[in-house]
Amino acid sequence: MKTNQIKKGARIKLENGFFGTMFDNAKGNTRMVEVEGLYTEIGSVYSHEIVAVKVGDAWQVVEHTPAQLKLKTQLTAMGW
Fold first, then answer.
1. Which of 10, 37, 42, 56 has the fewest Cβ atoms surrounding its Cβ within 10 A?
2. 32 contacts 43 by C-beta, under 8 angstroms
3. Alpha-carbon distance 37 to 64, whole Å?
4. Residue among 37, 39, 69 at smallest CA distance from 51
5. How far apart are CA 11 and CA 15, in angstroms?
């Protein structure tokens, strides 16, 4: 599944190990997510940080677009 196909309300897993709930139906390099980390909060998450989405009872790996992977490379080069 691609990040642009993830719908509002879907459960997701982030690359840092935190879980969350998708909070928008947008497309692009950032998405709004209710993240359940040290605190539960709603905020923007880079799409390339989403690694899995729960579909039914199973987790599916997320495919990233070339633009999302390019952004990840740029941010990594900057030390982010």
1. 56
2. yes
3. 23
4. 69
5. 14
3-state SS, residue 71? helix
- The sheet with strand 30-36 has its strands ordered as 40-46, 30-36, 19-22, 11-14, 50-55, 58-61
- Encode pLDDT of 3-58 as tens digits: 999 999 999 999 999 999 999 999 999 999 999 999 999 999 999 999 999 999 99
Amino acid at 27: K
If we measure between CA atoms, which residue out of 30, 65, 69, 70 comes closest to residue 47? Answer: 30
Whether residue 63 contacts residue 1, with contact meaning beta carbons closer than 8 Å, is answered with yes
- Using left for φ > 0, alpha for ψ between -120 and 50, and beta otherwise, residue 78 falls in alpha
Contact between 18 and 77 (Cβ < 8 Å): no
61 three-state secondary structure: strand
Q: Give CA–CA dist 57/30, Å, rounded.
A: 26
